[in-house]
Design brief:
This protein has a six-stranded mixed beta sheet with strand order 2-1-6-5-4-3. The protein is globular. A hairpin with a 2-residue loop joins strand 5 and strand 6. Helices cover 31% and strands 47% of the residues. It starts with a helix and ends in a 6-residue tail after the last helix. The chain contains four helices and six strands. The chain has a single domain, classed as Nuclear Transport Factor 2, Chain: A. The chain has 131 residues and is of the alpha+beta class.
């Protein structure tokens, strides 16, 4: 399985709600970064599988992902960039935001070493989420 296919399988697992499958592909010391730690309950930088599990728990508690569509996968030398679109609704207020995203995955030996999420932070920060 090449890096692009491996990352595609992680998005498929997310679509099924299968977080354990995602965790299996992560390095024990994975670095997981999502913006707006001061605004989004799931935002911030985490390390390790337990940190990533906390990310998914906090996301599920605070938000409904209404749309999540990876559209383009660009892979080269252990890096996979995924471009797509997401729409997320606050469980606390019912308000939602929609934004394009760029996800940057770094892999080594078939394991995810890091993940970075890049979104329109102004749009995401416009919605209040319970903390």
């Amino acid at each position: 399985m090449n890096d692009s296919d491996r990352i595609r399988s992680l998005y498929a697992a997310f679509g099924r709600g299968d977080v354990p499958s995602i965790l299996e592909h992560l390095d024990e010391q994975v670095l997981w970064s999502y913006p707006l730690a001061d605004v989004l309950p799931w935002g911030g930088v985490r390390r390790g599988r337990e940190g990533v599990l906390a990310f998914f728990r906090q996301l599920a508690e605070a938000a409904d992902v209404l749309e999540f569509e990876p559209r383009e996968f660009i892979a080269q030398d252990g890096t996979v960039v995924v471009l797509g679109r997401e729409r997320v609704r606050s469980k606390a207020t019912g308000a939602s935001y929609a934004t394009e995203f760029a996800h940057v995955w770094k892999l080594a030996g078939g394991r995810v070493m890091s993940y970075g999420n890049f979104i329109d932070t102004q749009v995401a920060a416009s919605v209040r989420f319970a903390r």
